[in-house]
Amino acid sequence: MNIIYVLLSISVVVAIVFFIAFIISVKRGQYDDTYTPSVRMLFEDEVIDSKENSKITDK
Amino acid sequence: MKLCYHCGEACKSDSLVFDEKDFCCNGCKTVYEILSSNDLDYYYALDNRPGISPKTQLGKFDFLKNDEIVEKLLEFKSKEVCIVNLLIPEIHCSSCIWVLENLSKLHPGIKTSQVNFPEKTLRIHFSAEKITFSQLVELLCKLGYEPYISLSDSDKKEKNIDRSLIYKLGVAGFAFGNIMFLSFPEYFEVKEFWLDQFKYVFRWLMFAFSLPVVFYSASTYFISAFKGLKSGILNIDVPIALGITVLFLRSTFEVVFDLGTGFFDSLSGLVFFLLLGRFFQQKTYSYLSFERDYKSYFPIGITRINHPNTQNQNEEQVEVYKLRKGDKILIRNNELIPVDAKLLEGDALIDYSFVTGEAVPVSIKKADKIYAGGKQTAGLLQVEVLKPVEQSYLTQLWNNEVFDKNFKGSFQDLTNKISGYFTKAILSISILATIAWYFIDPSMMPKVFTAVLIIACPCALALAAPFTLGNLLRIFGQHKFYLKEANIIEKMANIDAVVFDKTGTLTSTKRNIITYEGDLLSEEEKSLLNSTLRASNHPLSRSLYEILEQNDIKTLDYFTEEVGKGMAASANRNSIKIGAFKYVAENNELEQDVLNQTAVHISTNNHYKGRYILKNEYRENVTQLFKELGQNKQLFVLSGDNDGERKSLEKLLPLSTKMSFNQKPQDKLQFIKKLQEEGKSVMMIGDGLNDAGALKQSDVGVVISENINVFSPACDAILDASVFGKIGQFFSLANSGHRIIKFSFLLSLFYNLIGLGFAVTGHLSPIVAAILMPLSSISIVAFTTVSSQYSAKRILKKDAKNIQYQAELNYQ
């Protein structure tokens, strides 16, 4: 049953890793603006599309 | 009617057609050209007609050519890259985000740009070698996204966002979850070999997890309790801090001496819930600012004319702060005048709406004084500085001690009022119970003493206000009433005097009513009047012209306009004079209160005919609102204007309303102060910079605004002008919030009594605490949320029905 020490330490370490990830993400300001990224996410492909289209018409 | 492809405004008869699309003006067409030639026409696909018509005046941002000013605006500067964060009030849709984030396609000097939509800011990385800052701003203006750059930007300190609450909440939540897992096995008091074997590891781990909770997450409560005790107040944080301390000490004691599991789970849960309450209460409207002073209005740079009337006369862009008495400066059309000045040259037509809320511009004669805060609306001006920025008539107001410090500290909210009694009661119960146990079983004494303090920790009590108020704050926001902080709702519930500003607050700034008084005009005279008005650029004549029926326009034989006086014209041997009374009818006399009105006087063939009187229309529901508020509050109207409107106000408002006229900004502040000294809780509702002192002095300062993105003076709350009539409803919702808090106090006291039952009898086991504490907290949260939603629905729905009813009545 001494395996419980290993399991415990793994679970604590995993928890702490996630906790640190949370702190870092807050520190970098990822939660400062929670709206714009949701809009920005939808653009990306379209930009490339319109570019390609215009290249085709150029030819 | 054709709509502009870019901005969606209706095109006038002369719409521009380009690329088979209609445009209302050249500006819009240019934006389209720029975007389409750079493969950015996806802008128009994202949203229908998303654009903003560019309206920037040429030369408005000339001051950005001064490196000293630019230096202050940049966040970071090096040879390769500069970073700047610009506020762009026009950001309103996803197309805006898209085009602004693709700025790099428009100019190679721009590296990246990122929009923060809620704050309406754009962060740009650019290379100063390829594009100067003023070119960058020019580009933005060309696209219609004019950045807002004001004096307050230039002296801002490094802005540090305070994220400590999120960290504390994160730590507490993290520890709470882990401790719950670890304490779970011991909840079921089973005797089992392995459980006994490992319980020490579990306990010490729990102890370790609780350390950051007590010493970091809960530090706010210790500090606040300490401060409270130091100033002799038993605030709500005192019993909380006491509870946390006792919880921690007793649990540690139990673990160290192998007496039990301790209450680490309840401890971390308690702190987590408390912080959650704080977090919920902290709703901010980041795009609104409640802390503005005159600096946010004023431009940061201005054009100074050096060495006037000499050979080396030149223009220089200087910071506003560097203006000295006697300097000659240039004011362009639509520019704000930052200092008190004397008019030297040009047609001055000053719009003081920023300051007073009065929308009709005032014309000023040569050598007369122009006050800071006015906006020039009729072309180029040359003025001489009379006083530097800080000493101008308007800005002097900010030297008042009210603006010095946050002196609104005297307000004691309901929670803290009750916590004094609560703490005393808890302490006496715990001592009495301990004494009682002395006679029964002295060994139980410390256990009972600590158990009482633990279970009585007023978690639910402390959560009642944050959740009710936080919820109401959001509901108010949905109804366009934006509060700076949640505790303003509690202050609102205590208000017993409401002071209104007149111009811009009771009157709407947009619409004007025009009535005619005097002899009727013949058809001939009417057409002459129209033709003359048509030729003038004065705003009063323009708005009059638009309202009057347009019958046949004549060619004028003669036309002349004198700034600040009026105009004269003639056609077909008839002559007409339009303008100020003195100019129009030199020999006639009029009563003073007629002269006080804003009016356009008319005389034909040197014979005085009559006047068109322009009145600011009072907002709808003014009468109804005053009646509603007057039931339990004293009402006052303060106005900076003369008392020309007294009679019409008396007709509109209940008799009990007290009115004062000719109030200077300083007088308004004193007025509020006097009311407060009489023991009243005062709400000030105003709009302009001249109300700034009164707003600050009052217990709750509300700014009414036609457009919340436009800047308003420092205040506690911003009210969208469209919901002006709802103020009464907001008051009753604040009151019902107050009642909800009281109810939840009763509820939490009930939980405390149950808990005390366990504690006093010596039966408080960790599992009872672990169940009772979250249960009470969660039920309080549920109760406050549901009941505040319900009462909001009830109060504001009633209002919707009322409006409908009113509309039907009006229709009949």
TrEMBL record, chain A:
Pfam families per the UniProt record, alphabetical: FixS
Name by which UniProt lists this protein: Cytochrome oxidase maturation protein, cbb3-type
TM segment ranges: 6-26
Source organism of this protein record: Zunongwangia mangrovi
InterPro entries in the record: Cyt_oxidase_maturation_cbb3
Presence of the UniProt keyword Transmembrane in the record: yes
UniProt entry tagged with the keyword Transmembrane: yes
Keyword vocabulary terms for this entry: Membrane, Transmembrane, Transmembrane helix
Automatic annotation (TrEMBL), chain B:
Claim: Ligase is one of the keywords in the record: no
A biological process term (GO) from this entry: copper ion homeostasis
CC terms in the record's Gene Ontology section: plasma membrane
Highest taxon of the lineage: Bacteria
Predominant localisation class: membrane
Domain HMA: 82-148
Cross-referenced InterPro entries: ATPase-cat-bd, ATPase_P-typ_cyto_dom_N, ATPase_P-typ_P_site, ATPase_P-typ_TM_dom_sf, ATPase_P-typ_transduc_dom_A_sf, ATPase_P-type_domA, HAD-like_sf, HAD_sf
Subcellular location: Cell membrane
Assigned keywords, A-Z: Cell membrane, Ion transport, Magnesium, Membrane, Metal-binding, Phosphoprotein, Translocase, Transmembrane, Transmembrane helix, Transport
GO MF, one example: ATP binding
Listed transmembrane segments: 165-184, 204-226, 233-253, 259-280, 421-440, 452-473, 740-761, 767-788
Pfam families: ATPase-cat_bd, E1-E2_ATPase, HMA, Hydrolase
Membrane topology category: Multi-pass membrane protein
PANTHER family named among the record's database cross-references: ATP7, ISOFORM B (PTHR43520), CATION-TRANSPORTING P-TYPE ATPASE-RELATED (PTHR43520:SF5)
Family matches, as NCBIfam families: ATPase_P-type
Family in the record: Belongs to the cation transport ATPase (P-type) (TC 3.A.3) family. Type IB subfamily.
Protein name listed in UniProt: Cu+-exporting ATPase
